[in-house]
From TrEMBL:
Organism the protein comes from: Tistlia consotensis USBA 355
MF annotations from Gene Ontology: transmembrane transporter activity
Residues in coiled coil: none
Limits of the TRAP C4-dicarboxylate transport system permease DctM subunit domain: 14-437
Subunit-level organization: The complex comprises the extracytoplasmic solute receptor protein and the two transmembrane proteins.
Chain ranges passing through the membrane: 76-92, 112-141, 153-180, 192-213, 234-255, 261-279, 291-314, 334-362, 374-394, 414-442
Cell compartment(s), UniProt: Cell inner membrane
Record's bilayer topology term: Multi-pass membrane protein
Protein name, as recorded: TRAP transporter large permease protein
Keywords: Cell inner membrane, Cell membrane, Membrane, Transmembrane, Transmembrane helix, Transport
InterPro entries: DctM, TRAP_DctM
Family stated for the protein in its record: Belongs to the TRAP transporter large permease family.
Pfam family, one: DctM
Function noted in UniProt: Part of the tripartite ATP-independent periplasmic (TRAP) transport system.
Length: 447
């Protein structure tokens, strides 16, 4: 069988399984195994011989999965996931929101601003958007509803703010992208700083404008804090500040590698929780249990994707597609626009990790062929995946926030709430696309 035709048939089969709601790890793994077996068994112009194809297929299955799991950089994933859950159990995230609440209470939409800033701070000490949305949703959404905030703003601000966990370093998506594209995790982390800060500032501006134009969505609570209370609130921020210093400062200054920063920051978070007597044995066990489950899910998906990448590479379908596209004389700007539209559409239906591992085997050679910087492209892709987290009908962060709200708050209200933030995301995406320096300036300064 022609290898490129085989690749298209296998990709179609995997897509059909996805439509049937088969978990993406099984889709990719099954498609890759079948594709490899057919590739080695059915040579062009000959008859299939499955006994001949079984040995190389099993060899690739064993070597690929073993080599992937023994990738040192993968150890960052459980460490950063664990950091986020330990920080929540140790009340570090709760103290962060409480402190920000004191300083923003009198601003238009002050509690929503505190929620978004809290999401930004939480994102800077963990790499998971879902963990960020879940933790801040349980803390901030009930507080805003209690103070009379409309559900659209209360839920929309946290759902959108939670997406910052994808872009603000450390980001699990950047780690996975780096492994699949052989890029520097450190450079990708640094590249996400300015776009992440721009997204955070845009969310705050959106809340202020919304609250000024429609004061009823964010009543100003009758809260008055003294100077002493403000100083005391600042004192609650030192755990987050210390973790930021370890992660961002340590990586930027070259004191730690990203993996070392993950290990040290997790140890520091545990020590902070124990020293302040906020981290109990029950809380620690819960944090570790959730970390193990989420890590296992990510690893299984990634191993299936790695097998699928091996199969796609053997068929050489991607170089053939790139050669055809370049032969058409397509303008690079139109190619990038097509990639953006593709990710926006697919982001409506699949989760971020699934999209990343499914599309990189095709997109990376295409982007490299047109001479685009892969670090810049990584930021673009992660920003697009952020958008997918709040895009209907399968905006994962929206469903996470729904689990934190009363039954009388429907999904349609949350999706309406994220609409303005979604528009802001598109503006930030345009800035990243048109001004590559937003992504590349800090990595260049760190060289």
């Amino acid at each position: 069988m022609d290898p490129q035709l085989l690749a298209l048939l296998v990709l179609g089969g995997a897509s059909l399984l996805l439509v049937l709601r088969v978990p993406i790890a099984y889709c990719l793994g099954l498609a890759a195994c079948l594709g490899l077996l057919l590739f080695f068994s059915w040579r062009p112009g000959g008859d299939p011989d499955f006994a001949r194809g079984l040995v190389p297929t099993l060899s690739i299955l064993g070597s690929t999965t073993f080599g992937f799991v023994h990738n040192f950089e993968l150890s960052m994933i459980p460490l950063f996931i664990g950091l986020g859950h330990v920080a929540y159990q140790a009340r570090i995230t709760t103290d962060l929101f409480d402190a920000l609440q004191v300083w923003t209470a009198r601003l238009p939409g002050g509690l929503a601003i505190a929620s978004v800033l809290g999401c930004g701070g939480f994102s800077a000490i963990t790499g998971s958007s879902v963990a960020c949305a879940s933790a801040m949703g349980r803390i901030a959404v009930p507080e805003m509803l209690r103070h009379g905030y409309k559900p659209t703003l209360a839920t929309g601000s946290v759902a959108a703010g939670g997406t910052l966990g994808s872009l603000i370093p450390p980001s699990l998506l950047f780690v996975i992208y780096a492994i699949f594209t052989d890029q520097s995790v450190k450079n990708l982390f640094l590249a996400g700083i300015l776009p992440g800060a721009l997204s955070l500032a845009g969310y705050v501006a959106t809340i202020v404008v919304w609250a000024k134009l429609q004061p009823s969505v964010a009543p100003r609570p009758a809260l008055a804090f003294t100077a002493a209370e403000r100083r005391a609130a600042l004192g609650k921020l030192w755990p987050v500040g210390l973790l930021l210093l370890v992660i961002v400062g340590g990586i930027y200054l070259g004191v730690f590698t990203p993996t070392e920063a993950a290990a040290v920051s997790l140890s520091v978070a545990i020590l902070i929780g124990l020293a302040r007597r906020h981290l109990t044995w029950t809380g620690m066990a819960e944090a570790l249990s959730v970390t193990v489950r989420q890590t296992a899910m990510i690893f299984v998906i990634a191993m299936g994707a790695k097998l699928f990448v091996s199969f796609i590479s053997l068929t050489r379908v991607t170089p053939a597609a790139l050669e055809w596209l370049q032969g058409t004389g397509a303008d690079p700007a139109l190619v990038v626009l097509g990639i953006v539209v593709f990710y926006v559409v697919i982001g409506m239906f699949l989760d971020s990790i699934g999209i990343l591992v499914l599309t990189l085997p095709f997109m990376v050679p295409l982007v490299e062929g047109y001479g685009f910087d892969l670090v810049w492209f990584g930021v673009v892709v992660v920003k697009l995946l952020e958008i997918g987290l709040i895009t209907p009908p399968i905006g994962l962060n929206v469903f996470v926030i729904k689990a934190c709200t009363p039954d009388n708050v429907g999904l349609e209200q949350i999706f309406r709430g994220v609409a303005l933030f979604l528009l802001l995301d598109l503006v930030v995406l345009a800035a990243i696309l048109l001004i590559p320096g937003l992504s590349l300036w800090i990595p260049a300064m760190a060289l």
